[in-house]
Amino acid sequence: MNSKWFSRKLLLTVFAVAIVAGSDLMGLGLSDDSLNAVVTLVISAVGAQGLVDVSEAIRSGRKLADAVEDVKEQADV
Questions:
Q1: Would you say 10 and 46 are in contact if contact means Cβ atoms under 8 Å apart?
Q2: Angle, nearest 10°, between helix axes 32-76 and 8-25?
Q3: Distance between CA atoms of 64 and 56, rounded to whole angstroms?
Q4: pLDDT means per 10 residues in the chain (77 residues)?
Q5: What's residue 40's pLDDT?
Q6: Which of 6, 42, 67, 76 is deepest in the core (most CB within 10 A)?
Q7: How crowded is residue 14: how many other Cβ atoms within 10 Å of its Cβ?
Q8: Does pTM surpass 0.90?
Q9: Of all helices (H) and strands (E), which one includes residue 4?
Q10: Host H or E run for residue 46
Q11: How far apart are CA 11 and CA 53, in angstroms?
Q12: DSSP secondary-structure letter at 3?
């Protein structure tokens, strides 16, 4: 499975869409409160994973900036 195309965020979103669509189209009989709970849970999980991704990108950027500074200092010596 290629993680570029099958991220946790994508899989959770597809799961939520399938549950809501299944409830509407196939008459699964889920109440509005149950659907709202599923959607809220998925949105929270996707948002949390997005924050993790952003923090990892920031850390990577800091590491890169530190490495560039080290190279600049070595070049100045």
A1: no
A2: 160
A3: 12
A4: 68 88 82 89 89 88 83 79
A5: 92
A6: 42
A7: 12
A8: no
A9: none
A10: helix 32-76
A11: 16
A12: T
Measure the CA–CA gap between 32 and 26, rounded to whole angstroms. 15
pLDDT at 62: 84
Rounded Cα gap, residues 49 and 41, in angstroms: 12
20 Cβ neighbours under 8 A, 6+ residues apart: 35, 38, 39
Nearest to 7 by CA among 53, 54, 61, 40: 53
Contact 40, 77 (CB under 8 A): no
Residue 53's Cβ-side half-sphere holds a number of Cα atoms within 13 Å equal to: 9
Q: Which amino acid is at 58?
A: I
Structure tokens at 30: 């889920």
Structure tokens at 22: 């299944």
